[in-house]
Amino acid sequence: MNAESADNAADIVRRGLRRIDMRRIDLRRLGRVALLGSNGHSRGRLPGAIEHLIKVHRTRHPEAGREEVETLRRAYVLAESSHRGQTRKSGEPYITHPLAVTLILAELGAETTTLTASLLHDTVEDTEVTLDQVRLGFGEEVSYLVDGVTKLEKVDYGAAAEPETFRKMLVATGDDVRVMSIKLADRLHNMRTLGVMRPEKQARIAKVTRDVLIPLAERLGVQALKRELEDLVFAILHPEEHAGTRAMIEAAAARPDPLAVVADDLRGVLRDAGIAAEVRIRPRHTVSVHRLMLKRGVTELGGCDFGRLLVIVDEDADCYAVLGELHTCFTPVIAEFKDFIAAPKFNLYQSLHTAVADRHGRIAEVLVRTKRMHRVAEAGVIALGNPYASEAAQGTETPQAAGATGPAGDGWADPDPDPTQPGWLARLLEWQRAAPDPDTFWTALRDDLAQDREITVFTSQDGDASGTFRLPAGASCVDAAYAVHGEAGHACVGVRVNGRLAPLGTRLRDGDALQLLMDETAASAPEPEGPDPEWLEYATTPAARIAITRWLALHPAGPGGERPVAAPAARPVPAVDSAPDTEPVAVTDLPGAAVRLARCCTPVPPDHVTGFVIRGGTVAVHREGCPAGSRMAAAGRAAVSVRWRDGGSAGNFRATVLAEALSRPRLLADLTEVIAAQGIGIVSAAVEPPQEHRVRHTYTVELPAPEALADLMRAMKSVPGVYDVYRARPAVATLRY
């Protein structure tokens, strides 16, 4: 980022801070008041600096009594006196920082213990106050939280320190998610005031926030923090795009909002139906608007695109009653409907999502949820209160009592999630214990945090309990084997997907029924068979990749001590997947290395390719942009130069081709007949369920020569009803905020 862009970003952050301060207490003024000392504390009167904090806390927790208020007062007095004389880089009294962090948490509904620890979160690190003093004054629980946050404050966010740092961070968080809640609020206030930092430091902090802390906020379900962090990071790392998007949002705000008309119509519909509901217009934040433009490939938005309708009701049943009225009185956009009440997200999020068009053709997205769901949607684990207090003591309804379900444990299938140990966090803690080194864990962490969509898979196995599992979108049967069986996933020998035998590399879809076929003798075998090295190409989850990598590292010679026979070093070696009697297909100059074409991305000449050395010294050839190749590069594997053979390209190649068509009878028969007429064999085929009369067929085929691919695609496109034929594409990198 150049100096001019950095200055612009800093100015944007400062303007954003002024805008935010208009709806918050004036912490700068109160910080100066705090410096007056104990005069403001006389006769039991609360210090002016926390009057607003107490008011917000009692609004969220009406049951908070004198004891809780007194605890917060004592915590403030200790924090103010210990930080007295310290200032922030902005010149403000330092006490303004813990006050701001605590106010953020209070607005999200944090309970008294969390707020007390938040007020004191910098005292042990930055003042002469000791942890023993905190323990004596406020109890073991507050002391534990302050200690956890103190350890996180010692984090050096330099690139070399990141892997081990975040391993320790998750260990600290694992025992009590409130530690991470305080850390996230701390980071949000620091991001709000980042304009006083040097541009290069702004960028470094923003990137760590983007890569780790924002995904962690998503995992903890704290959407309110996540949204603001995203916008602040966007302003620093992409100032021009941010400025353009903000200008478009402000221009739209000056015009009549068509979403208000739809909202009024919806209120009338629900009133006539006798459903008590609150209908709000929920504006999109800056990053959300920018993502919508990228998704649609446009530079301008209009209509109802700048917001969504939020409908809040009292009971779960009312959510479905609202949905019925929406889909009866408006035209539903069926492809946009999602039920996160029956199947909550991994972070306990619950809502109904839909989109409808009114009589004028205006399309509005609608979210429907109860008041409790809304609290959890905004504040995530913070809204759950003290996870160690009884439900009666808190006066709140737990997700378990409300019948919520969510992932937990290695199998992602616990129907009663422990709010202190969300399933994804328990898995990360298991990975950090299993990962052989910090770098492996760091790669696994970032891979997992990058996953923002999930699928639900149903398992049914003889001798094993059936259940429901959640996996990241794009997960394979190999991932499922390790999610269900842990290290015993090595013994998976086959799989049935929706009743049919399928390759272990099959990518699972939402709602698939899975039956894993396990080798029953593996556990008692003196030298059990391990995973095939090719499984690394199929595995996407850290649990699977760490288990496979660790086994291969411990068994470098392969099962039974066998080693692949090396080819003569004097000549390039042909790809293993090519026909045995043909000339080499892909070659490398690496002496003695066998070469094979990766099955995950099925490269075909003249694709741009790169190679990676895998187990046994074999070089696997991947298309550029292949996710499996990208993961190996991120894990530190050096790329190996590979090239297609000069002077010819005879040999067998596999390619995956997708055909999109209008659904009709005999389509499958016509497509397979055309493929066979080209003299091409079908290795596997899959047909997705039709959606809105459209269907997609996926074929993996064996090509006699790369030139046959273009002829095949032309022939497939000539089939009546087929409107597009294309190769499976590797994942494309998108803009990151």
From TrEMBL:
Transmembrane segments: none annotated. This is Putative kinase/phosphohydrolase. The keyword Nucleotide-binding does not apply. One of its GO terms (cellular component) is plasma membrane. The keyword rRNA-binding does not apply. One of its GO terms (biological process) is guanosine tetraphosphate metabolic process. Residues 656-730 form the ACT domain. Pfam families: ACT_4, HD_4, RelA_SpoT, TGS. InterPro entries: ACT-like_dom_sf, ACT_dom, Beta-grasp_dom_sf, HD/PDEase_dom, HD_domain, NT_sf, RelA_SpoT, TGS. Belongs to the RelA/SpoT family. Keywords: Hydrolase, Kinase, Transferase. Residues 392-418, 559-582 are annotated as: Disordered. One of its GO terms (molecular function) is kinase activity. PROSITE patterns: ACT (PS51671), HD (PS51831), TGS (PS51880).
